[in-house]
Design goal:
Blueprint: E1 2-3, H1 10-20, E2 32-35, E3 56-60, E4 68-69, H2 70-77, H3 83-91, E5 95-97, E6 100-101, E7 108-109, E8 114-118, E9 136-139, E10 143-148, H4 165-172, E11 181-182, H5 186-191, E12 203-204, E13 225-226, E14 235-241, H6 244-255, E15 260-268, E16 275-279, E17 282-284, E18 292-294, E19 308-317, E20 322-329, H7 336-344, H8 358-365, H9 374-383, E21 389-397, E22 404-408, H10 413-425, H11 433-443
Parallel strand pairs: 14-21
Antiparallel strand pairs: 1-16, 2-22, 3-8, 4-7, 5-6, 5-8, 9-10, 10-14, 11-12, 13-14, 15-20, 15-21, 16-19, 17-18, 19-20, 21-22
Helix pairs in contact: 2-3, 8-9, 10-11
Length: about 450
């Protein structure tokens, strides 16, 4: 379903455009970071990290509560314990339903079922700290906000064991070696090592991989809490929880869709209408396991998941051959923006997986640009080595102070240069090619 919403407020779009029109020299120095009130007074007032290990639950599922997943129901009964921790407890044999041990996290509980649970020890992920430069936008004792570069994988996985954001955060926070495995088979995990846009952290523990912990960490084994993720090729803002309480609070905000995320993209073509809401479920593409697909119609399979996105054209570029599009996510499905963009017929520039191929982009843009500019166009398109998608801003309730905080970060050089070039195509005619060529030389 594609619907056209009421006109968006002008402040939203103008804010995005102001950020994008910064001069290249001030790109990184003009990062916005603000909240309803200053957080500085709270940064030294943080709660001690607590281990929830050993907490017990023995309750009956209330009448009228309907059917629920076991991990979801138990999570709703504990405050400050992450769902991943509950799943680990279930898989470790520490949960029973009606007196019988259950090790399946998706087991369905019904009204009247008696559920007992003991929270397991907090176990770490398997990853080595690596001295990888990070652009930290904001940090306090509870959260990190990072500007993830394109081409960096968020989580270690088969085929990407090193060089990930988690490896870098472990070094930055001086945390011990940790261990984890995805709860998919290793072959499936390898196929999906790049499928990670905004899905919740759902890794379980390898119980054989305990590590020695120093006295500072004796109460709880700390790990970087990746609450949401970005695709390998996507740049931009990502929030990381530094303790389990913060992880649980942020995960709940994602679950309730109260975390506001704004993305920008460069598309092949211009969507029509120029703004709207697309509500089309997403599932794995049966013909390509590393790709998702938007599936029109009713959801008849547990593998098809509801997905909704709002989009708005900020600028029409290159005479209608491209557009700068703002996206706001209502759900967080793997490759949601890329799959919805393809469904609209406007794949992202540089997205070879979802139809934004070099040949397709050139076929759209060449007829709209003077012949003398085709060389610059071809070089720009050939240099695109990732989908032109950037997580521009992020707003959430701070898990410790309760304040609304918002962070914004301009796109990196590859995105900005492509945008500048496409903007110039709007103003080119056969009579001013020399002016255009001189301008382009300044941004390459």
């Amino acid at each position: 379903m594609l619907t056209v919403p009421a006109a968006a407020t002008s402040s939203s779009s103008s804010s995005s455009l102001r950020l994008l029109r910064k001069t290249p020299g001030s790109r990184l120095s003009k990062i916005l970071c603000y909240s309803n009130s200053s957080l500085e007074s709270h940064q030294s007032e943080h709660r001690p990290r607590r281990s929830h290990a050993g907490l017990r639950l023995d309750e009956t599922v209330e009448v009228g509560s309907g059917r629920s997943r076991l991990d979801s129901w138990i999570s709703s009964r504990f405050h400050g314990v992450s769902r991943a921790r509950i799943q680990s407890s279930i898989r470790s044999g520490l949960v029973a339903v009606n007196g019988r041990p259950v090790e399946k996290v998706s087991h369905i509980v019904r009204e009247g079922d008696r559920v007992s649970c003991t929270v397991s020890e907090l176990q770490p992920l398997r990853a080595e700290p690596e001295d990888i430069p990070l652009e930290i936008i904001y940090e306090d004792p509870h959260v990190l906000v990072v500007n993830k570069p394109a081409h960096m994988v968020v989580h270690p996985a088969p085929g990407n064991a090193n060089g990930t954001l988690v490896n870098a955060i472990l070094h930055h926070c001086r945390l011990p070696t940790i261990s984890c495995t995805p709860h998919k088979s290793s072959s499936e995990a390898e196929e999906f090592s790049e499928l990670s846009e905004d899905e919740f952290d759902d890794f379980h523990v390898d119980p054989s991989s305990r590590v020695c912990i120093g006295p500072d960490n004796c109460e709880a084994l700390i790990r970087p809490g990746i609450v949401h993720r970005l695709d390998k090729g996507t740049s931009g803002l990502l929030v990381v929880a530094k303790d389990e309480d913060s992880h649980a609070h942020l995960a709940e905000q994602f679950k309730l869709h109260t975390i506001h995320r704004v993305y920008i993209s460069l598309t092949a073509g211009v969507p029509s209408p120029s703004s709207g809401r697309i509500e089309v479920p997403i599932a794995r593409d049966p013909n390509n396991r590393i790709r998702m697909t938007a599936v029109a119609g009713s959801i008849n399979s547990k593998h098809v998941r509801h997905a909704a996105s709002r989009y708005k054209v900020l600028e029409v570029l290159a005479g209608g051959g491209s557009a700068l599009v703002e996206w706001r996510l209502e759900t967080g499905r793997t490759h949601q923006i890329r799959a919805h963009a393809k469904y609209l017929g406007i794949p992202l520039l540089g997205d070879e997986v979802y139809g934004g191929t070099k040949s397709m982009a050139l076929s759209l843009l060449r007829p709209r640009t003077p012949l003398s500019c085709h060389g610059h166009l071809s070089r720009m398109i050939s240099n695109l080595d990732r989908p032109c998608l950037h997580a521009l801003s992020l707003r959430f309730k701070h898990p410790h102070t309760g304040e609304q905080v918002r962070f914004s970060c301009p796109p990196p050089v590859d995105f900005s240069d492509a945008l500048s070039l496409l903007r110039n195509f709007n103003n080119v005619s056969s009579d001013d090619d020399e002016i255009y060529i001189e301008h382009v030389s300044l941004i390459q």
